[in-house]
Amino acid sequence: MTEPSKPSVLARISPKQWVAIVLTVLAVLFILENRHKVDIEFLLMTIRSPMWLVLLATFAVGWLAGLLARRR
């Protein structure tokens, strides 16, 4: 009599987890490719920051604005 085979580790990962893994890898690649510093001028200030951080901050502000503006 043979024992039932256990599913492999890869088979036990759900589709949502696969999407999370892919998005994480893409985010890391994005950060690695956008490490150069850029100057941001806002009002009378000039800030020098890595491009990925500027884009992340812009995304966060847009996401927050979307949350505040959505209808219930």
UniProtKB/TrEMBL annotation:
Q: Give TM regions.
A: 15-32, 52-69
KW Transmembrane (keyword) present: yes
Keywords per UniProt:
Membrane, Transmembrane, Transmembrane helix
Name this protein carries in UniProt: DUF1049 domain-containing protein
